[in-house]
Amino acid sequence: MVETRTRVNKTMINLFENYNAQAFDLEHSLRQAGFTHTTIVLEENGFMPEHVQTPVGYFTGMQKNHQLDADARPEPLFFNEVKVPFYWEIRGDSTQAEIFEGYKKMGHIKYSKRENDYRVVSTVEWYNDAGRVRQIDMYNQFGERYGKRTYSDGNMAL
Prior knowledge:
With 158 residues, the protein is α+β, with helices and mostly antiparallel strands. The chain is built from 3 helices and 10 strands; from the N terminus they run βαββααβββββββ.
Protein backbone atom coordinates (compact mmCIF):
# COMPACT_ATOMS: atom_id res chain seq x y z
CA MET A 1 0.00 0.00 0.00
CA VAL A 2 1.34 3.42 -0.98
CA GLU A 3 1.35 6.03 1.72
CA THR A 4 0.21 9.44 0.57
CA ARG A 5 1.08 12.59 2.41
CA THR A 6 -0.78 15.78 2.14
CA ARG A 7 1.28 18.86 2.21
CA VAL A 8 0.14 21.47 4.68
CA ASN A 9 0.55 25.08 3.66
CA LYS A 10 2.35 26.77 6.53
CA THR A 11 1.62 30.26 5.32
CA MET A 12 -0.62 31.90 7.85
CA ILE A 13 -2.01 35.35 8.43
CA ASN A 14 -3.11 37.28 11.48
CA LEU A 15 -6.62 38.47 10.63
CA PHE A 16 -8.24 41.04 12.92
CA GLU A 17 -11.47 42.96 12.55
CA ASN A 18 -10.06 45.98 14.43
CA TYR A 19 -6.50 46.82 15.43
CA ASN A 20 -7.27 47.42 19.10
CA ALA A 21 -5.22 46.74 22.23
CA GLN A 22 -6.11 43.03 22.27
CA ALA A 23 -5.08 42.59 18.62
CA PHE A 24 -1.83 44.47 19.25
CA ASP A 25 -1.03 42.32 22.31
CA LEU A 26 -1.73 39.07 20.44
CA GLU A 27 0.34 40.13 17.44
CA HIS A 28 3.19 41.24 19.72
CA SER A 29 3.12 37.90 21.58
CA LEU A 30 3.19 35.97 18.30
CA ARG A 31 6.14 38.01 17.03
CA GLN A 32 8.01 37.44 20.30
CA ALA A 33 7.42 33.71 19.85
CA GLY A 34 8.92 33.86 16.36
CA PHE A 35 5.72 33.86 14.28
CA THR A 36 6.04 36.68 11.78
CA HIS A 37 2.83 36.26 9.82
CA THR A 38 1.32 38.96 7.68
CA THR A 39 -1.20 40.99 9.68
CA ILE A 40 -4.43 42.05 7.97
CA VAL A 41 -7.01 44.31 9.64
CA LEU A 42 -10.46 44.60 8.09
CA GLU A 43 -11.47 47.99 9.48
CA GLU A 44 -9.17 50.80 8.39
CA ASN A 45 -8.67 53.54 10.97
CA GLY A 46 -6.06 55.54 9.08
CA PHE A 47 -3.32 55.07 11.68
CA MET A 48 -2.08 51.52 11.11
CA PRO A 49 1.56 50.54 11.68
CA GLU A 50 3.53 50.08 8.45
CA HIS A 51 3.56 46.28 8.65
CA VAL A 52 -0.25 46.03 8.96
CA GLN A 53 -2.27 45.70 5.77
CA THR A 54 -5.90 46.66 5.25
CA PRO A 55 -8.25 46.08 2.30
CA VAL A 56 -8.69 49.86 1.86
CA GLY A 57 -4.93 50.43 1.92
CA TYR A 58 -4.31 47.54 -0.46
CA PHE A 59 -6.90 48.44 -3.09
CA THR A 60 -6.25 52.19 -3.03
CA GLY A 61 -2.47 51.84 -2.87
CA MET A 62 -2.50 54.15 0.14
CA GLN A 63 0.02 52.14 2.20
CA LYS A 64 2.19 50.99 -0.69
CA ASN A 65 2.73 54.49 -2.07
CA HIS A 66 4.01 55.82 1.26
CA GLN A 67 6.23 52.79 1.92
CA LEU A 68 7.95 53.23 -1.45
CA ASP A 69 8.51 56.96 -0.99
CA ALA A 70 9.71 57.00 2.62
CA ASP A 71 11.86 60.13 2.12
CA ALA A 72 8.94 62.27 0.94
CA ARG A 73 6.43 60.90 3.44
CA PRO A 74 3.85 63.57 4.21
CA GLU A 75 3.14 64.66 7.75
CA PRO A 76 -0.16 64.02 9.55
CA LEU A 77 -2.84 66.71 9.37
CA PHE A 78 -2.63 69.11 12.31
CA PHE A 79 -5.97 70.45 13.58
CA ASN A 80 -5.45 74.00 12.31
CA GLU A 81 -4.71 72.71 8.79
CA VAL A 82 -8.27 71.47 8.22
CA LYS A 83 -9.70 73.39 5.28
CA VAL A 84 -12.68 75.52 6.27
CA PRO A 85 -14.64 78.20 4.34
CA PHE A 86 -13.58 81.84 4.58
CA TYR A 87 -14.47 83.57 7.86
CA TRP A 88 -14.93 80.28 9.70
CA GLU A 89 -12.61 79.56 12.60
CA ILE A 90 -11.18 76.53 14.36
CA ARG A 91 -11.01 76.62 18.16
CA GLY A 92 -9.00 73.84 19.72
CA ASP A 93 -7.45 72.62 22.92
CA SER A 94 -5.47 69.53 23.86
CA THR A 95 -8.45 67.15 23.66
CA GLN A 96 -10.61 68.36 20.76
CA ALA A 97 -11.26 71.16 18.30
CA GLU A 98 -14.44 72.73 16.99
CA ILE A 99 -15.28 74.61 13.80
CA PHE A 100 -17.41 77.74 14.03
CA GLU A 101 -19.16 80.09 11.63
CA GLY A 102 -19.48 83.11 13.88
CA TYR A 103 -21.08 81.69 17.04
CA LYS A 104 -22.65 78.67 15.31
CA LYS A 105 -20.83 75.36 15.72
CA MET A 106 -20.44 73.77 12.27
CA GLY A 107 -17.97 70.96 12.97
CA HIS A 108 -16.05 68.89 15.46
CA ILE A 109 -12.46 67.66 15.02
CA LYS A 110 -11.43 64.45 16.77
CA TYR A 111 -7.77 63.78 17.38
CA SER A 112 -5.85 60.57 16.88
CA LYS A 113 -5.54 58.43 20.01
CA ARG A 114 -2.08 57.17 19.04
CA GLU A 115 0.76 57.90 21.40
CA ASN A 116 2.75 61.03 20.47
CA ASP A 117 0.05 62.25 18.04
CA TYR A 118 -0.47 65.66 19.58
CA ARG A 119 -3.51 67.32 17.95
CA VAL A 120 -3.32 65.16 14.82
CA VAL A 121 -6.68 64.92 13.04
CA SER A 122 -8.40 61.54 12.90
CA THR A 123 -11.92 62.60 11.85
CA VAL A 124 -13.85 65.79 11.17
CA GLU A 125 -17.61 65.81 11.81
CA TRP A 126 -19.46 68.43 9.76
CA TYR A 127 -22.87 69.60 10.99
CA ASN A 128 -25.92 70.80 9.08
CA ASP A 129 -27.85 73.96 10.00
CA ALA A 130 -29.88 71.99 12.57
CA GLY A 131 -26.68 70.94 14.36
CA ARG A 132 -26.85 67.27 13.29
CA VAL A 133 -23.98 65.36 11.69
CA ARG A 134 -24.16 65.53 7.89
CA GLN A 135 -20.72 64.17 6.99
CA ILE A 136 -17.63 62.70 8.62
CA ASP A 137 -14.27 63.01 6.87
CA MET A 138 -11.70 60.37 7.91
CA TYR A 139 -7.98 61.15 7.72
CA ASN A 140 -4.96 58.85 7.84
CA GLN A 141 -1.52 59.20 9.39
CA PHE A 142 -0.26 60.90 6.22
CA GLY A 143 -2.77 63.76 6.40
CA GLU A 144 -4.88 62.44 3.52
CA ARG A 145 -8.63 62.03 3.57
CA TYR A 146 -9.14 58.33 2.91
CA GLY A 147 -12.87 58.08 3.56
CA LYS A 148 -16.12 59.91 3.98
CA ARG A 149 -19.36 58.93 5.72
CA THR A 150 -22.54 60.72 4.71
CA TYR A 151 -25.49 61.22 7.03
CA SER A 152 -29.07 62.32 6.51
CA ASP A 153 -30.49 64.27 9.44
CA GLY A 154 -27.95 62.68 11.79
CA ASN A 155 -28.57 59.09 10.62
CA MET A 156 -26.10 57.28 8.39
CA ALA A 157 -27.28 57.24 4.77
CA LEU A 158 -26.55 54.40 2.41
